[in-house]
Amino acid sequence: MTLADFSYPDNVGMMSVPEQYRLGTADLSFIGMGPMIAYDTQGLIDDGYYELLRESLTDPKHLTRSWTVQEDVTAAFVQGNIDTQFAGIPVTGNVGLRYVHTKQSSQGNAFNVVDGLVVAQPTDVSHDYGHVLPSLNLIFAIDEQQMLRFGAAKTISRARLDEMNASISATYSAQQPDENGNYWSVSGGNPNLEPKEATGLDLSYENYFTAEGYFSAALFYKDLNDWIFNGNYELDLSGVPDPATGEIPETSSATGSGKVNGGGGQLWGYELAIALPLSEFSEALEGFGILASHTGVEQDIQDQNGNDYELPGLSDSIQSVTFYYERYGFSARTSMRKRSDFKGDVYGLGFETQQVDIQGETIWDAQFGYDFADSGISGLENLEVTFQVQNITEEPFISLQGDNALQVRDYQDYGRNYLLGFSYEF
Questions:
Q1: Are 334 and 322 in contact (CB under 8 A)?
Q2: Which range of residues forms the domain containing residue 336?
Q3: Do residue 215 and residue 320 come from a single domain?
C-alpha cells in the first residue's frame, strides 16, 4: 500500500501520523531498537489515507512464488517368493524387480529478456525419466528363537515439489556485483531434477527369548547418488541495461542459482533394540516392561563440487526408551526420545527453504488408558479411554546460526500438550 495524495514538507510520500490514530509506543528493546510508534493502520486505510496496490506491481519477484508441479507415474513389477534351505537352515523371502517411469511438468513465471528488459512471463517445462529398481529380502530361521534377516534394494526419492518448480526470479543489486562483475542474479526451481538414488544393504539378528521379549542388532549401509544440492551456473543477459544508470554493462554474464543433481557418498550405521518384560525377573512385576533402542549413524557425503555435506534431518545418535504397564485393562507408559544435533531445512521469507543447524533435543511423553472390556460394567464393554501428555518437560525447538550454541537463530517453545480420547466400538 502507498500514501494517497499526502506528503510531508520536503519528504514526498511521507506524512506525520494524525493524533487520533496514534496508539502509544511498542517496546522493541528486546531486539535492541527501543520504543517504536504504534498506530492504527486499519483506521488509516478505512479513512482513505492509504491506497492498496497489488504487491506484484512493486515486487514482481512474487509472481515467481506462484507455480504448480504435476507428476504422472507409471510402474510395473515382478516378484518371486523364496522358500528353500541353506546349509540345513530354512530360508524364506522374495526377490523382485520394479520399473518406474515418471513424467513431471511445472508451470510458473520465469524472467526473460525482452527488448532489453527483464520481464516475467508464463513458463511450462516438462521432463521424464525411468528407473529399474531391484530388491532382495531373505530370512534365515536359525531356530525357533533366532532369526537372521538380509535385505538389498535400490530405491529412489523424488525431489520436493518446491525444488521442481519452473518459476525463476531475477534480482538486481547496485551495491554487490557477482564474481563476473554483473549486478543481476537469477534463482529458481529446476523442473529437470531427477530423484535421489540409494543402494542399500541391511543385516539384522533377532532373538525372541520369550513370547513377549526380544533383542536385536542391525547393521545398515547405503550408497547415495544423484543427490540434490544448491548449484550455480552462468547465463547471458546481453543487452540488459543497468536499472540504476540505463547503461548496458560491459559483461553480459550473470550468476544463476538453483537445485542440481550431483555428488553423493556413503551412509552407514547400526541399531540395537530390546523389549524386556519384567515378569521374567519376578511374577510380582507381571505387566511391567521396558522397550529401548539406540541408533548410531556415520556419513561421508560430498556435493557436486567435492565439498563435505551433511544430510538434513540426520542425527548421528538417537536413543529411545519406554517404560510401560499393561494389565487388567489398565495401560500406562512413558517414553523418551533423545537425538543429537542435526541439519534441518526450515522455511524462511516467501516460503523459501534454507538449511540450518538444529540443536539436539530430549522429548518425554506419557500415555494412560483404560479398556472397559475388563471392567465388567454392562454397556461399557466396548469403551476405551486414553489420556496423553506430550512434551512433558516443555523441550523447545532451537535452530542456530552455524554450529555455535550461543548464536540462536530461532527459539520456539511449544509447551506441553494434553490430549483426552474416547473410542467406542458398535
A1: yes
A2: 312-426
A3: no
pLDDT exceeds cutoff 60 at 8: no
Note whether residue 269 is domain-resident.
yes
pLDDT, average across residues 202-208: 98
Within a domain: 147: yes
Task: Assess whether 35 and 144 both reside in one domain.
Answer: no
| 274 lies in the same domain as 163 | yes
Q: Which amino acid is at 275?
A: A
pLDDT at position 174? 65
Per-residue pLDDT at 301 exceeds 90: yes
pLDDT digits (tens, 9 = 90+) for 321-351: 999 999 999 999 999 999 999 998 877 665 6
Is residue 295 situated within a structural domain? no
* Three-class DSSP category at 291: strand
Q: H or E segment at 253?
A: strand 253-261
**Predicted pLDDT of residue 376:** 78
**Is residue 166 classed exposed, middle or buried when 0-12, 13-18 and 19+ CB atoms within 10 A define those classes?**
buried
Name the average pLDDT for the chain: 87
**Does residue 176 register a pLDDT over 90?**
no
- Asked whether the beta carbons of 237 and 254 are under 8 A apart, the reply is yes
Residues 404 and 336 in one domain: yes
pTM: 0.76
Q: Do 226 and 144 fall within a single domain?
A: yes
Write the DSSP string, 375-404: T--TT-TTEEEEEEEESTT-PPEEEESTT-
Taking CA atoms, 382 is separated from 330, 379, 386, 387, 422, in Å, by 14, 8, 14, 17, 11
Q: Number of structural domains, the chain?
A: 3
| CA angle in degrees (0–180, nearest 5) for 227-230-233 | 115
* Residue 360 contacts residue 324 (beta carbons within 8 Å): no
Same domain, 249 and 179: yes
